[in-house]
Amino acid sequence: MTKERMWIDPHIHMTSRTTDDYEAMAAAGVVAVIEPSFWLGQPRTQVGSFQDYYSSLVGWEPFRASQFGIKHYCTIGLNSKEANNEALAEQVIELLPLYLHKENVVAIGEIGYDDQTPAEDTYFRMQLDMAKELDTTVQIHTPHRDKKAGTLKSMEVCIEHGLDPGNVIIDHNNEETVKEVLDRGFIAAFTIYPKTKMGNERMVEVVRRFGSTNIIVDSSADWGVSDPLAVPKTANLMLNRGIPEEDVVKTCYSNALQAFSKNGKMKEAHWLEPQLIDQRNLYNDNSVLRGQQPRVDSETIE
Amino acid sequence: MVLSVSSKEVENVIRGNISDETFQWLIKRLETIISQKSGKDLFMTYSLLSAKIPDNDLLILTFQESLFNSLLNRQHAKILELARIYLLMRVLEADGETFTPKVATLIQVADKGELVAFLKFLAFLPNHLAFTHVAVEALRTNIADVFDAISLNNPFPAAYFNDQQWNQMYLKAAFMQRDLSLIMDVDQRANKELTRIISDYAHERWAASRDIDPLFWRPVAGFLDAGLLQDMERLLSSDLKAEQLAGGLCCLHSNTPEATELLNRYPDIKKEISTGEIGWESIKQIR
Fold this sequence. Notes:
The structure holds two protein chains of two kinds. Chain A contains twelve helices and eight strands. Chain A has an eight-stranded parallel β-sheet. In chain A, strand 4, helix 6 and strand 5 form a beta-alpha-beta unit. In chain B, helix 1 runs antiparallel to helix 5, helix 2 runs antiparallel to helix 3 and helix 14 runs antiparallel to helix 15. Chain B is elongated and about 70 Å long. Chain B starts with 6 loop residues before the first helix and ends with a helix. By secondary structure, chain B is an all-alpha fold. The chains are: A alpha/beta, B mainly alpha. At the A-B interface, helix 2, helix 4, helix 5 and helix 6 of A face helix 3 and helix 6 of B.
């Protein structure tokens, strides 16, 4: 990078990532991340598994991120895939309100459709009602199969439940869905998948064609093959390909900040006036170190 | 000491501190939660309260003197804390069987601030004994705010902890260098095992040339055996005024011939504390 820039990755599952990733992201200029709650690969069978997962997203993971100088926020919700276990879904829904006011929770998410089943529809709607009542931002997962219809349906249901489209972020867009999303006033996020159809070359063209208003770049990095540096890499590629800097900053930083800061939990001051890194800190007596020398940043020069 | 407070009393206090609109909303929500036996509505209401009431606003109390008011003052009660406790009191009163496990979940996922509120007002909950384990768990924390919430300005430990739990709390409070004068009912809960712990701990500190909060000695007054009398002598002959007075007060309150005789050997100290004007409170000032 030619000059120091700041990036936000508003969709990344850090629970599944390593400390190397945190270090590389911080070095590449990522100052804040948002971790949506989602499916962990292995289906959960107990409500307690969800409870501990959510507690980790508001407890341990923000601590871990802080140890590498990154501010961590999350979104809380019942993902569409696991909504199909209805007996469990009922109990998980009951639990959600207990997390939605916690200090790093910026939205309900990621919720929506996977196979677009009736059960998914039921719990998606319940969570939208909750969002409406709590006046919360919503982060929506769109299906991989039958994407276009699923995306349209997600938006229709949001409007049916009285949500403000400007307070709803639709994730995993592509060239086929983006226009409909923007035309309806929703915010369109794009996931950059390495070595696939939605690589960052394509993202450059999306921004060239659709501009930077209401468009957000995500890595959506998780436990699968994915790239936690997708946001800074895409930003740099856009700059190299001549996309105006203003548009790059909007799509890779400020749009995400604006979209997810509506409940007042996410603040630029968190990284502009950061706490110095002190790896001697503990969380419930637990450290991120395994006998290494702790990194302790200081403002004084010795 | 205030141990049982009715939800009506709590309601009267919060009514004066939240808007009528918020109050009416809360009452309406309570009706639904209780009639539907709905954990989800309880959790929604608990969550929404934080959007309706600012986090840090302190309660404003009427000038009416009551034990309840003075406890709220001591605890620096915040409006949001008490409103949430009121919500929990009401549902537990109405249907303990349904809501006790819901409240238990709520505590399991509580963040620091929520846990502090819960511990501060634990004694108010109708079936608080179902949650004693949470109070005991809080004794193991190293987070000062959480430990303080249960141990300081709180009537719950003296009323409901057994001796082992009480002693664990007292020693840890000293170890974490909390203000021991804020622990309620220290004299009533003094016990022989605690005096042994206090003396052992003091000897460890002395061996390492470290000082001891003079207030730490307070519970030993009723249990002055030969060993402790030696400790008292060491305090009485200390260079520090606060330690002299602490030793003197323990001897004075012990009322045994041996302690009286020991105190007689320090006439200046005896004179100073015999007027009744110098007590444990004054030691806190001197220190």
